[in-house]
Design brief:
seven-stranded mixed beta sheet
């Protein structure tokens, strides 16, 4: 069996692991990524001050070391390879492309300078090549982060960390220099629903109380009017409420930076200032309504306030990018699928031998570790559907490499990546950090060309 996996983030590597551990069939996996570097969200999305989470790449390295695994970096599906190329060269295809697009607020003024999607900000400070030239202006004193998930917390935390805290991380060098000079002193995390519905994890929330020169601020009024009965709250909801209550009971300290956590507010307009950039954010107060199905909805009350801020970072979710030749679900903004099997979005008929894992399947939900079981679940479908498929004769395994070379693609192997890895770690030693990332693809390829 030969399987192509498109994308080298956690869900892709977990799918590869499950496939390569099969005992009923010998499986060869070729993993493709549009960047020369593997690991997807672990490299480009996990906050630089969370180095312990990034240690998961050691597991992925073990998968990559298997003799029946090949990595093809710097290969773009839809440009260097088509879906039809994959269908000719592989028995099955797995899309593990994640969610690279952001969801917008859809309110007046959203396009003004300093209203920047959190995806851009996070990619910028993580050294993602797509965002290395992003213009991040931190000359303002107050920032609003719209959203109540871990992405919002990550963005706020990086804005409020001291340079000394950030220097110990693998944050991109260009971002570190800008953050050294940052004038940001207050950050507001804004949620449209209540504290019970916030989707950040308790560990991330608690971490906000442990920063060197920033402290969380929760007004007692933010925690009144809870709608879910105490007995019906999940463990995470109980933990989050306990942490938020402890923040609300803290006396105001002497730390120079403040992180305000606010709930039941929705932005209705980005206010443009004299410099044509953000000068404020109009917020509508919400109330909660319990729906018949047990879910909670936020409804606007018509009560409007203006929050004075100089930057807005919307962090309200992600969506999958459309890929030429791959069915797309316009409503869910993911690859069209039914439990991981790719389907035609109109007829709902299954596309044979094509599958999707991770956020491209479900949207942005679940922590990194949760993708292991989810990817294995989809691989179980592949095993069921793949009976007898290996008898289909395919081109020689080297044919895909020849095809890419004819296209003029400089393919990056996993051994090539290890060379880049060594260079980044050596650069990091010089600045006393875990690594100093190379953020330009052309420079990466140039280094490999020299080797």
């Amino acid at each position: 069996m030969r399987v192509a996996i498109i994308g080298s983030g956690p869900s892709g590597f977990y799918a590869a692991e499950a496939l390569l551990k099969r005992t009923d069939e010998v499986v060869h996996v070729d993993m493709f990524d549009r960047l020369p570097t593997p690991y997807g969200l672990v490299r480009g999305g996990v906050a630089p001050d969370h180095q312990n989470i990034k240690a998961v790449t050691r597991i992925y390295e073990k998968t990559a070391a298997r003799p029946t695994f090949r990595f093809f970096g710097n290969v773009r599906l839809g440009k260097d390879l088509t879906v039809d190329d994959l269908r000719r060269h592989y028995h099955q295809i797995v899309y593990a492309v994640g969610n690279e697009a952001d969801r917008r607020l859809g309110i007046p003024g959203e396009g003004v300078p300093r209203c920047t999607p959190a995806t851009v900000f996070i990619g910028w400070y993580n050294g993602h090549p797509d965002y290395r030239h992003a213009k991040i202006d931190l000359s303002v004193s107050r920032v609003a982060v719209v959203g109540n998930g871990n992405v919002a917390i990550d963005a706020a935390r990086i804005l409020l960390r001291t340079p000394a805290e950030l220097e110990k991380t693998d944050i991109a060098a260009h971002a570190l220099e800008v953050l050294r000079k940052s004038q940001v002193r207050e950050v507001f995390i804004l949620g449209r629903r209540g504290p019970e519905q916030a989707s950040f994890t308790s560990v991330e929330l608690e971490e906000l109380g442990e920063m060197e020169d920033a402290e969380p601020v929760v007004a007692p009024g933010e925690l009144v009017g809870l709608i879910i009965p105490e007995a019906a709250r999940s463990k995470q909801q109980q933990k989050n409420l306990k942490i938020l209550q402890s923040f609300a009971e803290r006396p105001l300290g002497t730390k120079s930076k403040k992180l305000h956590l606010r709930f039941l507010v929705s932005p209705t307009e980005v206010i443009c200032g004299p410099d044509d950039g953000v000068s404020g954010l109009k917020l509508e107060k919400n109330r909660l309504e319990m729906q018949a199905d047990g879910t909670v909805a936020a409804r606007g009350t018509g009560e409007i306030e203006a929050l004075e801020v100089g930057m807005v970072l919307p962090a309200i979710g992600f969506s999958a990018e459309r890929i030429s030749g791959v069915p797309y679900d316009e409503k869910k903004r993911v690859i069209a699928n039914e439990d991981g099997r790719v389907i035609d979005p109109v007829s709902h008929l299954t596309i044979p031998n094509e599958y999707v894992v991770g956020w491209a399947r479900t949207g942005p939900q679940g922590l990194i570790g949760s993708h292991k079981g989810a990817s294995a679940h989809v691989v179980a479908h592949m095993v069921t559907d793949g009976t007898g498929l290996a008898e289909k004769v395919l081109p020689d395994p080297e044919a895909i490499i020849n095809l890419l070379h004819k296209q003029g693609v400089q393919v990056v192997s996993f051994n090539d990546w290890k060379q880049l890895d060594d260079v980044e770690v050596a650069r990091g030693v010089r600045r006393e950090s875990p690594r100093d990332k190379i953020v330009d693809v052309e420079i990466m390829l140039s280094i490999l060309g020299q080797h």
